[in-house]
Amino acid sequence: MADKRKNNGNKGHSTKAKGFDKRKNPYKDVVTDVITTEELEKILKMLLGKAINEEDITASKLILEYSLGKPKETKDIKMDVNKNFPEWLNE
Hints:
Blueprint: E1 16-17, E2 20-21, H1 26-34, H2 37-53, H3 57-68
Antiparallel strand pairs: 1-2
Helix pairs in contact: 2-3
């Protein structure tokens, strides 16, 4: 009888390994240890200045993506609903 999660086909496997979380980005810890908040602020101000003063598209894109987030992809879906209905239903 499958009444508990471990009995429902999940043989005890998890995305978390014992002692080490595979989902965690190890490089993020290194960056936070090396860069201070003041240095990060200088980098962001430099990028913003480059985006505004030099009209650098790459710097502008980088600033906007990190501040506003990447735009979501939109898909235009068009359906012809009346295609399979008889003509007398359209009246």
